[in-house]
Each structure stands twice: as C-alpha cells, then as structure tokens.
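Batch job 17 of 40 flagged for manual review because the log was empty.
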Amino acid sequence: MLKHSLVLSAAVSAAVMTMSAGAATEAERIKQLEQQLQQQQQMLQMMQQELQQLKAGQAAPGRAEPGRADPGQVESTAVHSVVQPQEIEAEAVAVAPTETDPLGFDIYGFVMADAIYDFKRVDPDWNDTLRVSTIPTQDGQYGEDGEFVFSVRQSRLGVRGEYDTPAGKVTALLEAELFGTGGDAGQTTPRLRHAWATWNNIGLGQYWSNFMDIDVFPNTIDYWGPTGMVFYRNQQVRYSFPMGDDEFSIALENPDTALTVGKFRDECAAELEENCDSVLNDVFRKYNDIPDLSIRYRDNTDWGHWQLAGIARKLGYERLDTGEKDSEFGWGVNASTVINTFGQDKLKLQLVYGEGVGNYMNDGGVDLAPREATRVGNSAEAVPILGVVAYYDHYWSDKWSTSVGWSTTKLDTTKGQDGSEFEQGQIAQINLLHYPTSGVLIGGELIWGEREDVSGDDGYDLRAQLSLKVNFPRE
C-alpha cells in the first residue's frame, strides 16, 4: 500500500510539471502549483496512516484475533529469537510460570537475652536454664549457692518456603538456635532444630516427633520447660492422611536408646580378674536396627484440640567384648489437650506413660537399665516412666500475660540402677510478660525445681529470670 502511494505521488507530480511547462499565463501556473501542493499533502497523510498501521502490526507480531487460532504461532517463536532483549523480558513477565509457583518464602527468628539469678546452683553446663536433672542432690556439688548468669543462647534463625509444582505442594524448613548440647553443652554454638521437607502428604527430615504435641508447651521464658512433657526433635519419615481439619499420621523415627549401666558404672571386675581400667560402661552399648513406629491422631475443635499418640520400639543392646545381643520391647501412650477457656486463655494438659520411652521425654528419662544388681547373668530392662503437664496461660490484655503451672517426671527404677541416678523431678513456674509493641516481649519469671535420686537424696533450685525477646521484622 505504501509503495502504491509513492508511485501515485510521483505520477501526479510529473503530470503537474508537464502542465506547468505548457501553461500560457502566470495565473494558470500559480493555480497549477496550488493543486500540486494540495495533492502532495493528501499523499503525505496517506503515507502517515500506512506507517502507523505498520508500527501497530510490529508491536504485536503473530497475535491472533479474539476467538481465533493463531496460524503464525510457530513462526512468531522464531521471530522472538531476534527481537531486542527488553522485548523478550517483557513478554516473559507476562507468562505464568509452569514449573514452580512460589506461595511463600520467609526468613524469621529472634534475638533473646536472659538475665538469671540462681539462688542455688546447677551443673555449670546448664546454668542458663532450669533442667531438673541437673539439680545437685549433694551440698556444694557445683560450688556455693548463688550465681548470676547472662545468656543469649535462646536466639534463633530460620528459613521456610512453600511451593506449588505440577507434582504437588512442596515445603521446606531449616531452623537453628545457639543452645549447644551434647559435646557442645554449655557453649553458645549453632544447633540444628529443624531440617524438614514435605511433598504432598509425605514428610522427611528432622522435626517434632510424631509422638509429641508441641502445643502443650506453655507460654514461659525458661528454655527447657516442663520436665514431664514429651519433647523431642527426631529424624523421621512421616505420612499424614488427609482428614480435613483433623490430623492422622504415621511415622518411622530414628531409634536412639537412652541406656544406663547402673551400679556398674564405676566398678572394675576384679573378681573376674579383668583390667580395672575397663568397666562395664566400656563394653555395654545400645544396639538399634529397627526404627521406632509412632502413630498420632489429633481432633481440632471449636474449643481447642485433643490428641492421642502411641509409640512402639525395639530397644537393643550388646556387649562389645562378647558380641552378645539382646533387646527389650518399648511402648508408650501420650494423651494431651489444649482447651480454650476465656478470651485468649488456654488450659494445657498432658499425661504420658510407657516403658522404655525416656529419651522422648523433655528431661530425666532413661530407656534401658540393668535388671538386677549382680554382674553375672544380668540383663537389661525397659524402665517404666510417667509424665504429667498442667499449665494455664492467662492473658490480662493484648499487652500482658501470665503463665502458671506444674510438671513432673517419675521413673520406676530397677534394682541395677545406681543410687545417684535420677528417679523423680518436678518443676513449677509463674511469670508476668509484657508486649509493648509488635514483635517485642519483656518479662520476668520465677522458677522452682526439685530432683530426687534412686537413693532418696534430693535437692531443689529456685531462680528468677528476666528476658527480652525481639523478633526479626518481616515484610
């Protein structure tokens, strides 16, 4: 169309020039020039319209009309390979992702600082929390009474993400804190809390045990919490059955037997003419070859929830000197509930009982212990254990809250356990917490704990704690 316009314009101009050459008077030449100018203006307008149409066509190559298929779809893909980078980027933004659709990604955590005055004294590796099993039962065992402690070990950092994929929903969680345990006990070192991934209804990694109910943990600021609570982060594979608002899940969990050698911890078998540097503790070891099986059902209601969980375990042990192996059967039942009472208030209760489930307890548990006090012909026994939790979280207002409660752990110890071993513990707490603004908590807590040994010796601790917790801001 544009080519035709140019040819027509040239032909008209030539004709006008020919007429101009043969004109007789000046007036006729002026008139002819005016006509030529008018015709050229019309041609210019036509050319501008053609140019605008061409530009519009280039801005949307290969675009089909509404309701019609695009016959140039394959061809337009080839055109995209030679267009400018900014054009490719603009078109890519307009296309929805097809592989993964991120639903959310979050970096979270907090800094928490504790100032603690301990009126008694506990194991120095655990002096920034009241873990009941670390309370001494002998005077002066950890020094004179009275100790002041600053701590930042409760500080935490985590990342989590959630994605929709063609194969289903995927989630990931990675979380750590600064409270060292095990070989890092007493140190301010990073410690893994969770490394958990899910795909649809399958979960794999390290997370809260399927045998526990984390919602029973009260609104307190001491790190360790209720001694009689099932509290354990464990490596596991879990399948959760879809049940609407309710939950039913089955898990295979990492077996890790808490074993004690009891009375023979510090003895040498002189009567057997063995090296006195070699004690039973050097040859008596746990032996785990089958994962723990846990089942959990949770019913979520308008008034809160109730949960029932069970666990079955093979508690293996062996002697490294003889190669002998044996095992005991461990089992446990955990019933828990959180009841919404008035406003934001919550009543939190748990009752757990079993044999050989001590390492799933928050504190003081043991799974296997020597059955008898004699060395010859002795065997191991799964230790029965009872745990109770009863706490009440009260919210005076949006700015103030108080949590008060009590918890206990009691072991039915064996004849082969040493007199200095833990048999029973209890803890009681009360606090007053203030939330001056979003993401900030400051408050104080009074904590009392008691430990009783197999021998009957006991000890208690009393401490006061002041804490400031500041969450990392989120967008």
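Reviewer: the log was empty due to a logging misconfiguration, but the result itself is present. The CA atoms of residues 67 and 73 lie 15 Å apart. Unflagging and moving on to job 18.
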